[in-house]
Amino acid sequence: MDRETRRTIEEFRHNEAGPLENNVIDELVNGELDRDEFLRRATMFGLGAGTIGALLRMVGEADIAYGAPLETVQAGGTIRLGIPVFGASLEPYLLNEGGSLAFAGIPGEYLTFTDPKARIRPWLATSWRPNANASVWTFQLRRGVRFHNGKEMTSADVVASLKHYVARGSNAGLAPFYDAAGVSARGRYTVVVRLKAPLGAFPYLLSQTTYQAIIQPAAIVAKPGTWVASGMIGTGAFRLRRYVDKRSAELVRHNAYWGGRPPLDGVRITFFQGSAPLVLALRAGQIDLAMQLSPQEAQPFKNNSRYTYYSQPVSAHRQFCMRSDQGPLRDPRVRRAVALTINRPQQIARVMLGQAQVGNDNPFWKQFGSTDKSVKQRRQNLALARNLLSAAGAENLDFNITTWNFLDHSDHAASIQAYARQAGIDVGIEVMDVSKYYDSEPAGADYATTTPWLNRTATLTEYGWRGVPDLYISRCYMSTGDWNASHYKNAEFDRVARSYLESPDVGAQRRATKRMAGLLLRDTPVVTDYFINYVTASSSKVKNYVPEGISHMRLAKVRLA
Amino acid sequence: MTRFLLKRLGLAIITLFLLTVVVFAISTILPGNVGRAVLGPFATQESVDALNEQLGTDESVFVQYVDWAGDLLQGDLGTSLTKQAPTWDLLAPALENSFKLAFVAFLICVPLSILGGVVAGLRYGRFTDKSITITGISLAAMPEFVTGIVLILVFGIWLGWLPVTAQAEEGASALTQTKYLLLPAMTLTLVLFGYIARVTRAGVIEALDSDYTRTAYLKGLPSGVVVRRHVLRNALPPTIAVVAVQVGYLVGGLVAVEVLFNYQGIGLLVYEAARQKDLPLLTAGVLVIGVVYLVVTLIADILYAALNPRIRLGGAE
Questions:
Q1: Is cis: bond before A92, omega within 30 of 0?
Q2: By the 8 A CB rule, do A106 and A314 touch?
């Protein structure tokens, strides 16, 4: 290590680093973090590029690669997007569908950015720092960011937006982590968020994976429900010119965009009523890029020189939840037996045409830094499944899987049904409309105790891409979770989960996820048999497009050949 | 004539009233919840309840109907619950779209079907007749989305001649809009051809077999004149009645075609309103479609009378 590198690191350790940053450095030096994981955690705790480079050099790794200059691009042109029509609101705090968040996410932007490898990146915030126990986070805002109305984004706008997203009625799901009183400005470009409890991964929660958390001008936030009527004013690379409800939208280049002049002149969006017309429109050349397709829908675009096929592995997954508190699946041996019937690689080949990654009945995606990769993978074992059923006295097991008509759900349920039959389990399938699956039953009844997706014997539900598993753990598996469809209650799991959520230390997190994974394999409240790949396609003339895992279509660098 | 029109108007008002009552009554068994539809599956129940209370959807269907009907009597079709906009503002552009598609489909379908029916009738029992009849029945038996996909594959994707979505850009010329509407109009033509052609064919065969046609031939009139003056004039009235009913379908019943061609017509709007349990929009939409049906049927009756002097509107009593 040269003298300059050593001096940089020591200065940082002494003058800037708190316990969390020093812990990351120690973990790197001790070999607990590989390069990717170090980059992920260093950026999460807001270490500067110079410090990160010096630390990498210190352990004999290559310095971080700075973005190579883009090739000379031919600017101009209007890209035509195909996005599924949405039923619910476009107001940021109410976003809840792929189509609406994809559209709102073009003019709108977020404080931070989770990249496809689940690394957190600066976006409207350039850096962030936690206090000693990660309960207070200080964000430095990017200077010179202009909203589409020409006004500069300041801490007042960010504070107003962050408060708005924890207000009553918001779908953002941030209220468990902080309240409005905990958000304050410190000067024109600094925002401080005081959390209700320590949370090492907090910057992830303000990225686009919390797709509601768009930063809006304070004046618009002051009147909730007026963002669309005000012209969807955000800081994104394109600003809204015209929107015809559920039909089309037109956006033009935001010339004052902080990220440099976008190559495209504009964006034209057509909203489609179903995936079939969207696929046909792409095939006929009427649109250039589709938001998301199922592997089956995207198949004609694969290995076809006229199109580009995208398949991005992400942490989005399906949860096959089994009621652990009542009914025929109450006994954990029965639930384990059901899980053991599934031939996961074969299922991925059949249901997802290979565009998914094998899951191990927990939400710990292999690429999460906190995932312990030594946990043994569950495989199909029909003999063991039959023995477990026999031991539990459930040889004649039958139950229904309830789901809704979304992408692969029906095929997935049918696949589980076929595998279960091999062990003598009789599985029925009930496919609902989305409005019924996610509504109380009957309408107007108490939601938490009647809605099918949280109360049926077995359910199959989709979960979107996240950069960290915190949300899955806290809301789907902990006994206090409001999306705990399996009604799983395990005091030890809760305790380990809490220690995971509060720990900023990757070693401790990995130990926690290993223990949680073990408990989940033993109790099997949820079968997570695969994590999906985010699949879509475009015309081959679309260049520089990188799909994300959650329907957003980042177009600032996209150009048309 | 005036008496006939007044009678039809009275009947129309009763029919439309009953239609709105039935729609509201049936809506009670529809799944879904407006608050949930607006706020989404992951909104808290507290937020959903608050929104339902604000929108008045927690009231009984009877109360909601009385509110809606009260507004209607003052010329207000109500406000959409899910979109928070006057229903007419949503229905008007969708209705305009539906009329455009119906018009283009009508222009292609009706002359072609009548021509097919007349030719089949005149060639009764021959190869031409059998070809037209079997083709028509086969096409009518095929679901419209299947016909539509085949046309899209052939003309939109393989040949690349026509756009596969029906919605032209805002401000497009009439010619461009027509081009965009050609594929769905062709789909509807193929679906309706068999039905209209068969009715026309039956009328032509019946007219050809009648005494007045035989007399006309015996008088020595040329075939063309007989067909034009005697056969068609007597064969077409039933076809007009059938076409009138199809116009109602073309305006309000094209959900599958509108989805396939991504076209924002009134059928799709009403379907979405039903899915989201948006009662004011659903009822107003059904009411508008009902009015279209009644007006078209009335026009057909008047045309029917004009073509057939033996019919005297309102004169039977």
A1: no
A2: no
Residue labelled with tokens 């490898």: A117
3-state helix, strand and coil shares in percent for chain B, rounded to the nearest 5: 75, 0, 25
- Beta strands at A78-84 and A125-130: parallel, antiparallel or unpaired: unpaired
Q: Which residue has the tokens 């108490």?
A: A446
Inter-axis angle of helices B174-208 and B144-151, nearest 10? 130
- Host H or E run for residue A120: strand A120-122
Contact across the interface for B262 and A94, Cβ inside 8 Å: no
Which string of DSSP letters, residue by residue, matches B89-135? Answer: HHHHHHHHHHHHHHHHHHHHHHHHHHHHHHHHHHTTTSHHHHHHHHH
Interface membership of B55 toward A (CB under 8 Å):
no
- pLDDT of res. A394: 95
A424's CB contacts (< 8 A; 6+ apart) are: A386, A389, A395, A396, A397
Residue A198 burial (10 A CB sphere; 0-12, 13-18, 19+)? middle
pLDDT digits (tens, 9 = 90+) for A15-30: 677 767 777 777 777 7
Q: Does B179 touch chain A (CB under 8 A)?
A: no
Q: Which of B29, B30, B164, B182 to mutate to test the interface with A (most CBs of A within 10 A)?
A: B164
The residue of A439, A449, A450, A475 whose CB has the most chain B CBs within 10 angstroms, and thus the best one to mutate to test that interface, is A439
Cβ of A448: how many Cβ atoms within 10 Å? 11
Considering only CB atoms, A247 lies closest to which of B47, B149, B167, namely B167
Report d(CA A116, CA A208) in Å as an integer: 11
- CA-CA-CA-CA torsion sign (A264, A270, A276, A280): negative
pLDDT in tens, B83-123: 778 899 999 999 999 999 999 999 999 999 999 999 999 99
A25 Cβ contact list (under 8 Å, min separation 6): A9, A13, A17, A55
Judge contact between A486 and A323, C-beta under 8 A.
Answer: yes
CB distance A469 to A315 below 8 Å: yes
Structural contact between residues B254 and A273, judged by C-beta atoms closer than 8 angstroms: no
Contact flag B275-A94 (C-beta cutoff 8 Å)? no
Residue with tokens 């009335």: B298
**Residues in chain A within 8 Å Cβ distance of B46:** 168
Amino acid (1-letter code) at residue B148:
G
Query: Integer distance in angstroms from the first to the last C-alpha of chain B?
Result: 12
* C-alpha distances in Å from residue A256, one per residue of A75, A148, A216, A243, A511: 16, 8, 16, 21, 47
Residues A506 and A301: beta-carbon distance below 8 Å? no
Dist. CA A185–CA A187, nearest whole Å: 6
Tokens of A491: 């005091």
Query: Considering the entire predicted model, what is its pTM?
Result: 0.82
Buried b (16+ CB within 10 A) or exposed e, A390-415: eebebeebebbbbbbebbbbbebbbb
Interval A107-125 mean pLDDT: 93
* Cβ pair A217, A199 in contact under 8 A: no
pLDDT average, residue stretch A155-168: 95
Most distant CA atoms of chain B, gap in Å: 85
Contacts of A72 (CB under 8 A, 6+ apart): none
Residue type, A222: A
